[in-house]
Amino acid sequence: MTEKYAVVVIGGGAAGLSAALVLGRARHRALVVDAGEPRNAPAAHMQGYLTRDGMPPAEFLTAGREEIARYGVELVRDRVVEVTRDDDLSGVRGEDSTGVRDEDFTAARGERFTAARSEGFTVVLAGGRTVRARRLVVATGLKDELPAVAGVAERFGRDVLHCPFCHGWEVRDQPFGVLATTAASVHQALMVSQWSKDVRFFLHTVAEDELPDEDLRRLAAAGVEVVPGEVAGLVVEDDRLTGVRLADGTTHPRSVLFLAPRAVPRTGLLERLGAELHETPFGVYPVVDPTGLTTVPGVWAAGNAIGFAEQVVHAASGGYRAASAIVGDLLMTDLDAAAQV
């Protein structure tokens, strides 16, 4: 028999676990499907999350899994390979204080409640399991594609970094490099000057005449040195970054290199469900309302599935918002259906 859930959460990172926590506490039967590929896995620590500053990402996720388990939320390590819309799914609730766990859970209070028939979804997992859900939370995140420069992939998350808010304090006052991948990389070079006054902006594949005069003036005002020429690779000694080597053979001593990866949102499931997407400077993301509701009824998205700049704290907040909206949506759907009986 196909198992039924009120909500299936696709993705077990900060957004997905936060949504699952809210759903479990609201007594909804929920399933989290986690492929185990968090975006921040290369980082040793996460920063800027109040009360969790400096916590290793893996430790954070372990704590989150333990929390949702206390409320009866199920988590499975698997991957969703297909989702289809389904218009004949009966509602499924969680367990109330009497221990009743089925769609007649209010009978213990002297009333018989039959959950409304509602549009739902059939979810197929790579491991062969098929489940059904009334609502979905898509928290599949994104993948960072790094520039093809020798040494970058190996050092990413250590001394090759992408976010000064995440790592700037830890590497403050060291010699910074910033690798340009587009003209928009100027903004990153300006931002990191908040954490170090020794910043060199490596133009790499960007021509100096591509930079607007306003950008050049700002770089000069911030004390950022502009270095033309393609970057050939990194210099690493004793397992630490010591320099950036140009194609002409010159080497610039640097301890930290910032760059902007190309964000590749994992929107495949949303596309197959027919969600509307829109182009942004950082990739193609689903159109969502303030709660994360996509243009597909019953499907919410949260975390890096909706934007490049969603930090862990933002992702957790987005998962909370999505789940609280779903709780209200399911309640009103069921009440309206019961009123028509």
Describe this structure in words.
The longest helix is centred in the C-terminal third of the chain and has 28 residues, at 312-339. The protein folds into two domains: 3-142 and 262-339, FAD/NAD(P)-binding domain; 147-259, FAD/NAD(P)-binding domain (3-Layer(bba) Sandwich), CATH 3.50.50.60. The protein has helices at 14-25, 57-69, 152-155, 164-167, 185-192, 213-221, 268-273, 312-339; strands at residues 3-10, 30-34, 74-77, 80-90, 117-125, 130-138, 142-145, 160-161, 176-179, 199-202, 224-227, 231-237, 240-246, 251-253, 256-259, 262-265, 277-280, 283-286, 299-301. It is elongated. It is 25% helix and 29% strand. 40% of the residues are buried. The protein is built from eight helices and 19 strands. It is an alpha/beta fold. The strands form five sheets. Strands 1, 2, 3, 4, 5, 6 and 19 form a seven-stranded mixed β-sheet that branches. The protein has a five-stranded parallel β-sheet with strand order 8-15-9-10-11.
Q: What descriptive keywords fit this protein?
A:
341 residues; alpha/beta; FAD/NAD(P)-binding domain; 7-stranded mixed sheet; 5-stranded parallel sheet; 8 helices; elongated
How would you concisely characterize the structure shown here?
This protein has helices spanning 14-25, 57-69, 152-155, 164-167, 185-192, 213-221, 268-273, 312-339, and strands at residues 3-10, 30-34, 74-77, 80-90, 117-125, 130-138, 142-145, 160-161, 176-179, 199-202, 224-227, 231-237, 240-246, 251-253, 256-259, 262-265, 277-280, 283-286, 299-301. With 341 residues, the protein is an alpha/beta fold.
